[in-house]
Amino acid sequence: MRIDIITIFPQMFSTVFTEGIVRIAQEKKLLNIYIHNLRDFTQDKHKKVDAPPYGGGAGMVLRCEPIFKAVESVILDKRSRVVLLSPQGRVLTQKRAKQFLKYQQLILICGRYEGVDERVAEYLADEELSIGDYILSGGEIPAMVLVDVLARLLPGAVGDKQSIEKESFEQSRLDWPHYTRPRVFRRWRVPRVLLSGDHRKIELWRKKKALEKTKENRPDLLKEV
Ligand SMILES: C[S@@+](CC[C@H](N)C(=O)[O-])C[C@H]1O[C@@H](n2cnc3c(N)ncnc32)[C@H](O)[C@@H]1O
Protein backbone atom coordinates (compact mmCIF):
# COMPACT_ATOMS: atom_id res chain seq x y z
CA MET A 1 0.00 0.00 0.00
CA ARG A 2 1.14 3.51 -0.82
CA ILE A 3 0.13 6.47 1.36
CA ASP A 4 0.69 10.09 0.33
CA ILE A 5 0.17 12.77 2.96
CA ILE A 6 -0.34 16.42 2.10
CA THR A 7 0.48 18.76 4.96
CA ILE A 8 1.94 22.13 5.85
CA PHE A 9 3.93 20.48 8.68
CA PRO A 10 5.89 17.60 7.09
CA GLN A 11 8.35 17.50 10.01
CA MET A 12 5.61 16.31 12.37
CA PHE A 13 5.74 12.84 10.78
CA SER A 14 9.47 12.22 11.03
CA THR A 15 9.54 10.55 14.45
CA VAL A 16 6.16 8.82 14.43
CA PHE A 17 6.76 7.03 11.13
CA THR A 18 10.30 5.90 11.97
CA GLU A 19 9.34 3.86 15.03
CA GLY A 20 7.41 0.68 15.82
CA ILE A 21 5.07 -1.18 13.47
CA VAL A 22 4.90 1.70 10.96
CA ARG A 23 8.68 1.50 10.57
CA ILE A 24 8.60 -2.30 10.33
CA ALA A 25 5.82 -2.21 7.71
CA GLN A 26 7.95 0.16 5.61
CA GLU A 27 11.09 -1.95 6.04
CA LYS A 28 9.16 -5.03 4.93
CA LYS A 29 8.00 -3.04 1.88
CA LEU A 30 4.35 -3.50 2.86
CA LEU A 31 3.89 0.23 3.13
CA ASN A 32 5.37 3.20 1.26
CA ILE A 33 4.76 6.61 2.79
CA TYR A 34 5.38 9.89 0.99
CA ILE A 35 5.01 13.22 2.77
CA HIS A 36 4.34 16.29 0.61
CA ASN A 37 4.70 19.88 1.74
CA LEU A 38 1.61 21.78 0.60
CA ARG A 39 3.70 24.94 0.24
CA ASP A 40 5.62 23.31 -2.64
CA PHE A 41 2.39 23.50 -4.67
CA THR A 42 1.92 27.26 -4.30
CA GLN A 43 2.93 29.76 -6.96
CA ASP A 44 3.51 33.00 -5.08
CA LYS A 45 6.86 33.87 -3.59
CA HIS A 46 5.55 33.73 0.01
CA LYS A 47 4.19 30.19 -0.55
CA LYS A 48 0.88 31.19 0.98
CA VAL A 49 -1.54 28.31 1.52
CA ASP A 50 -4.35 30.11 3.38
CA ALA A 51 -6.71 33.07 3.03
CA PRO A 52 -9.53 34.67 5.05
CA PRO A 53 -12.99 33.11 4.72
CA TYR A 54 -15.49 34.60 2.28
CA GLY A 55 -18.46 35.95 4.21
CA GLY A 56 -16.22 36.99 7.10
CA GLY A 57 -15.57 35.31 10.40
CA ALA A 58 -12.64 34.14 12.46
CA GLY A 59 -9.48 32.43 11.29
CA MET A 60 -8.05 31.41 7.95
CA VAL A 61 -9.00 28.72 5.47
CA LEU A 62 -6.65 26.48 3.46
CA ARG A 63 -6.98 27.43 -0.21
CA CYS A 64 -8.08 24.86 -2.72
CA GLU A 65 -5.62 25.49 -5.61
CA PRO A 66 -2.47 24.10 -3.97
CA ILE A 67 -4.42 21.14 -2.56
CA PHE A 68 -5.85 20.23 -5.99
CA LYS A 69 -2.38 20.62 -7.50
CA ALA A 70 -0.75 18.45 -4.85
CA VAL A 71 -3.32 15.64 -5.16
CA GLU A 72 -3.28 15.73 -8.96
CA SER A 73 0.50 15.44 -8.98
CA VAL A 74 0.62 12.30 -6.79
CA ILE A 75 -2.55 10.40 -7.68
CA LEU A 76 -1.85 7.09 -9.42
CA ASP A 77 -5.10 5.66 -10.77
CA LYS A 78 -8.65 4.55 -10.03
CA ARG A 79 -7.58 2.42 -7.10
CA SER A 80 -6.49 5.56 -5.25
CA ARG A 81 -8.66 6.98 -2.51
CA VAL A 82 -8.48 10.66 -1.59
CA VAL A 83 -9.32 11.27 2.05
CA LEU A 84 -9.81 14.66 3.67
CA LEU A 85 -9.22 14.47 7.42
CA SER A 86 -12.06 16.44 8.96
CA PRO A 87 -14.16 16.45 12.14
CA GLN A 88 -17.15 16.61 9.79
CA GLY A 89 -16.36 13.24 8.25
CA ARG A 90 -17.55 9.75 9.06
CA VAL A 91 -15.84 8.46 12.19
CA LEU A 92 -12.95 6.01 11.85
CA THR A 93 -13.57 2.56 13.32
CA GLN A 94 -11.64 -0.69 13.11
CA LYS A 95 -14.22 -1.94 10.59
CA ARG A 96 -13.85 1.15 8.43
CA ALA A 97 -10.05 0.92 8.63
CA LYS A 98 -10.15 -2.60 7.17
CA GLN A 99 -12.15 -1.33 4.20
CA PHE A 100 -9.26 1.00 3.31
CA LEU A 101 -7.00 -1.99 2.72
CA LYS A 102 -8.55 -2.58 -0.70
CA TYR A 103 -7.05 0.60 -2.11
CA GLN A 104 -3.63 0.63 -3.69
CA GLN A 105 -3.01 4.26 -2.70
CA LEU A 106 -4.44 6.56 -0.05
CA ILE A 107 -3.96 10.30 -0.34
CA LEU A 108 -4.50 12.02 2.98
CA ILE A 109 -5.16 15.75 3.08
CA CYS A 110 -4.43 17.41 6.42
CA GLY A 111 -6.46 20.52 7.14
CA ARG A 112 -5.39 23.37 9.46
CA TYR A 113 -6.80 26.62 10.85
CA GLU A 114 -10.59 26.94 10.36
CA GLY A 115 -10.46 24.10 7.86
CA VAL A 116 -10.23 23.61 4.11
CA ASP A 117 -12.05 25.32 1.22
CA GLU A 118 -15.22 23.24 0.84
CA ARG A 119 -14.52 22.58 -2.87
CA VAL A 120 -11.88 20.09 -1.75
CA ALA A 121 -14.53 18.01 0.06
CA GLU A 122 -17.00 18.44 -2.79
CA TYR A 123 -14.90 17.90 -5.91
CA LEU A 124 -11.56 16.35 -4.94
CA ALA A 125 -11.87 14.10 -1.90
CA ASP A 126 -13.64 10.75 -2.15
CA GLU A 127 -14.55 11.06 1.50
CA GLU A 128 -14.07 13.02 4.70
CA LEU A 129 -12.79 11.06 7.69
CA SER A 130 -12.91 12.01 11.36
CA ILE A 131 -11.03 10.27 14.17
CA GLY A 132 -13.59 11.23 16.80
CA ASP A 133 -15.91 13.88 18.10
CA TYR A 134 -13.37 16.46 19.19
CA ILE A 135 -11.44 19.21 17.43
CA LEU A 136 -7.71 18.94 16.89
CA SER A 137 -5.67 21.81 15.51
CA GLY A 138 -4.76 19.95 12.33
CA GLY A 139 -5.21 16.80 10.28
CA GLU A 140 -1.65 15.56 10.88
CA ILE A 141 -2.40 13.61 14.07
CA PRO A 142 -5.56 12.08 12.50
CA ALA A 143 -3.44 11.06 9.48
CA MET A 144 -0.88 9.44 11.82
CA VAL A 145 -3.70 7.62 13.61
CA LEU A 146 -5.04 6.22 10.35
CA VAL A 147 -1.57 5.15 9.14
CA ASP A 148 -0.83 3.44 12.45
CA VAL A 149 -4.15 1.56 12.42
CA LEU A 150 -3.61 0.46 8.81
CA ALA A 151 0.01 -0.57 9.31
CA ARG A 152 -1.02 -3.08 12.00
CA LEU A 153 -3.63 -4.54 9.66
CA LEU A 154 -1.31 -5.11 6.70
CA PRO A 155 -0.73 -8.86 6.44
CA GLY A 156 2.78 -9.60 7.71
CA ALA A 157 3.36 -6.34 9.58
CA VAL A 158 2.55 -7.68 13.04
CA GLY A 159 4.49 -10.87 13.78
CA ASP A 160 1.75 -12.74 15.67
CA LYS A 161 -1.47 -12.74 13.60
CA GLN A 162 -3.42 -13.94 16.64
CA SER A 163 -2.63 -10.79 18.58
CA ILE A 164 -4.61 -8.82 15.98
CA GLU A 165 -7.50 -11.27 15.75
CA LYS A 166 -8.08 -11.15 19.50
CA GLU A 167 -7.90 -7.42 19.98
CA SER A 168 -10.61 -5.02 21.08
CA PHE A 169 -13.40 -4.50 18.50
CA GLU A 170 -12.58 -7.68 16.56
CA GLN A 171 -15.47 -9.69 17.96
CA SER A 172 -17.75 -6.83 18.93
CA ARG A 173 -16.17 -6.69 22.35
CA LEU A 174 -13.16 -5.18 24.11
CA ASP A 175 -9.96 -7.08 24.91
CA TRP A 176 -9.54 -9.02 28.15
CA PRO A 177 -7.08 -7.93 30.90
CA HIS A 178 -3.41 -8.82 30.47
CA TYR A 179 -0.87 -9.48 33.24
CA THR A 180 2.84 -10.25 33.32
CA ARG A 181 5.66 -10.63 35.87
CA PRO A 182 5.79 -10.19 38.84
CA ARG A 183 3.03 -12.39 40.28
CA VAL A 184 2.61 -9.98 43.19
CA PHE A 185 3.22 -6.25 42.81
CA ARG A 186 2.88 -4.33 46.07
CA ARG A 187 -0.14 -6.20 47.38
CA TRP A 188 -1.88 -6.83 44.06
CA ARG A 189 -1.83 -10.40 42.81
CA VAL A 190 -2.21 -11.73 39.29
CA PRO A 191 -5.57 -13.60 39.11
CA ARG A 192 -4.96 -17.19 40.23
CA VAL A 193 -6.62 -18.74 37.17
CA LEU A 194 -3.92 -17.32 34.86
CA LEU A 195 -1.27 -19.27 36.78
CA SER A 196 -3.29 -22.51 36.79
CA GLY A 197 -2.12 -23.84 33.42
CA ASP A 198 -5.75 -24.87 32.70
CA HIS A 199 -6.28 -23.44 29.21
CA ARG A 200 -10.02 -24.05 29.10
CA LYS A 201 -10.55 -22.24 32.40
CA ILE A 202 -8.26 -19.41 31.29
CA GLU A 203 -10.22 -18.96 28.07
CA LEU A 204 -13.55 -18.88 29.91
CA TRP A 205 -12.20 -16.37 32.42
CA ARG A 206 -10.86 -14.14 29.63
CA LYS A 207 -14.18 -14.19 27.77
CA LYS A 208 -16.04 -13.33 30.97
CA LYS A 209 -13.70 -10.43 31.76
CA ALA A 210 -13.86 -9.11 28.18
CA LEU A 211 -17.65 -9.17 28.33
CA GLU A 212 -17.74 -7.44 31.73
CA LYS A 213 -15.51 -4.62 30.51
CA THR A 214 -17.47 -4.24 27.27
CA LYS A 215 -20.76 -4.02 29.19
CA GLU A 216 -19.27 -1.42 31.50
CA ASN A 217 -17.40 0.79 29.04
CA ARG A 218 -18.86 0.12 25.58
CA PRO A 219 -22.31 -1.47 25.75
CA ASP A 220 -22.94 -0.13 22.23
CA LEU A 221 -20.52 -2.75 20.85
CA LEU A 222 -22.68 -5.61 22.15
CA LYS A 223 -25.64 -4.32 20.17
CA GLU A 224 -23.61 -4.73 16.96
CA VAL A 225 -23.54 -8.56 17.26
C1 LIG B 1 -9.30 23.32 13.90
S1 LIG B 1 -9.77 22.08 12.75
C2 LIG B 1 -11.13 22.83 11.91
C3 LIG B 1 -12.43 22.58 12.57
C4 LIG B 1 -13.64 23.08 11.79
N1 LIG B 1 -13.72 24.51 11.81
C5 LIG B 1 -14.90 22.48 12.38
O1 LIG B 1 -15.45 23.07 13.32
O2 LIG B 1 -15.34 21.39 11.93
C6 LIG B 1 -8.49 22.12 11.57
C7 LIG B 1 -8.23 20.81 10.86
O3 LIG B 1 -7.88 19.80 11.79
C8 LIG B 1 -8.28 18.53 11.31
N2 LIG B 1 -9.11 17.91 12.36
C9 LIG B 1 -9.49 18.45 13.52
N3 LIG B 1 -10.20 17.60 14.26
C10 LIG B 1 -10.28 16.46 13.55
C11 LIG B 1 -10.90 15.20 13.77
N4 LIG B 1 -11.59 14.94 14.89
N5 LIG B 1 -10.77 14.24 12.83
C12 LIG B 1 -10.09 14.49 11.69
N6 LIG B 1 -9.49 15.66 11.41
C13 LIG B 1 -9.58 16.64 12.32
C14 LIG B 1 -9.01 18.77 10.01
O4 LIG B 1 -8.13 18.49 8.94
C15 LIG B 1 -9.38 20.22 10.08
O5 LIG B 1 -9.52 20.81 8.80
Please report the distance between the alpha carbons of the first and last residues: 30 Å
What are the low-pLDDT stretches, counting only 5+ consecutive residues below 50?
A: none
- H/E order of the elements? EHHEEEHEHEHEHHEEHH
Strand content: 15-25%
Which small-molecule ligands are present, each listed once?
A: S-adenosylmethionine
Explain how this protein is built:
35% of the residues lie in helices and 19% in strands. By secondary structure, it is of the alpha/beta class. Strand 8 (184-185) and strand 9 form a beta hairpin. The chain is elongated, with a radius of gyration of 22 Å. Helix 4 (94-100) packs across helix 6 (140-153). It folds into 2 domains: 2-153, Alpha/beta knot (3-Layer(aba) Sandwich); 168-223, Trp Operon Repressor, Chain A, CATH 1.10.1270. The chain has helices at residues 13-16, 20-27, 64-74, 94-100, 118-123, 140-153, 161-165, 199-217, 219-223; strands at residues 2-7, 32-37, 50-51, 61-62, 80-91, 105-110, 127-130, 184-185, 188-189. Bound molecules: S-adenosylmethionine.
